[in-house]
Amino acid sequence: MRYSDYKCFRLEFDSGVAFVSIDHPPINLLDEMLSLEFDKLGRELEGDESVRVVILQSALPDFFIAHSGLGRVAAASKTVSQTRSFRLTQMIGERFRNMPKVTIAKIEGRARGGGNEIALAVDMCFAAAGKAVFSNPEVAIGLVPGGGATQRLPRLVGRGRALEVLLGCNDFSAELAERYGYINRALPPDELTPFVEKLARRIASFPAHAIAHVKTAVDSGAFRSLADGLLVEAHESDLSVASDVTQRRVTEALKRGAETYEAELEMEFLSGLSPVG
User: Fold this and answer.
1) CB-CB contact of 117 with 111 (8 Å)
2) What predicted TM-score, i.e. pTM, was given to this entire model?
3) What Å distances lie between residue 70 and 34, 66, 113, 141, CA to CA?
4) At what angle do helices 149-157 and 114-121 cross, to 10 degrees?
5) CA-CA distance, 124 to 130, in Å (whole number)?
């Protein structure tokens, strides 16, 4: 049976639009379970000719996707292969970017780390003003973002602003993200869903082949060297995971409340981490 056995997603389909609600409480952590289901779902949607537009949204009001699970960092091998290979989050993002249909993120809560990277990968991103939050806090822990941010952000906002996001590790409001070109639009919360759904249904009413051809043409100019950049990013991220400093800071972050609902709301635990010697 198609689209069966998903524990982290709620799915609805209407007139060529797939409404994909991420439902992995308490914070939609991009852990092993959610990542594997995301990968499976992307493959199914990619091959479903009845779907022309995909809307990614969250069933949780405060979180789109919190970030990638830190437990996987703590369990990672310190031996890094010299053979470059793609990360799973990169592959998920690339599938949603490359599939011959339109993918839209509708964000009303926090999109951080790997969650932000998935939002960056899709074709369009719309967010709730005064509610949505974007950030890549990995460097504060000692990590290099490994889900596409180092490659996608400079293409969207330019080198200087990308470095501000990636090295500052601060939260960005939907309004500032719109001003930077990070997202398509920041909309009043009560206007967000009607706007996104109207746009999705309009696009879904157009010929599927034309949608696919336009995406291919646009991407050929915008992302010609993205694959090479993603491989570099993945390797540098693996090297950061193998660092003793990173391992200590991951352990400390978890002890200070990382991946718990209250701590993840504002991520104040980052400022309380021990100074780097």
Assistant:
1) no
2) 0.88
3) 14, 11, 11, 10
4) 50
5) 19
The angle formed by the CA atoms of residues 84, 155 and 121, to the nearest 5 degrees, is: 65
Residue type, 181: G
CA–CA distance, 40 with 18 (Å, rounded to integer): 15
Instruction: Quick: pLDDT tens for 6-30.
Output: 999 999 999 999 999 999 999 999 9
**Interior/surface letters 223-235, b for 16+ CB within 10 angstroms, e for the rest:** beebeebbbebbb
H or E, element range at 244: helix 244-255
Residue 270: Cβ within 10 Å count: 17
| Domain boundaries of the chain, sorted by first residue | 9-189+215-272
pLDDT digits (tens, 9 = 90+) for 130-151: 999 999 999 999 999 989 999 9
Q: DSSP secondary-structure letter at 36?
A: H
Q: How many CB atoms lie under 10 A from the CB of residue 49? A: 9
Fold of 9-189+215-272: 2-enoyl-CoA Hydratase; Chain A, domain 1 (3.90.226)
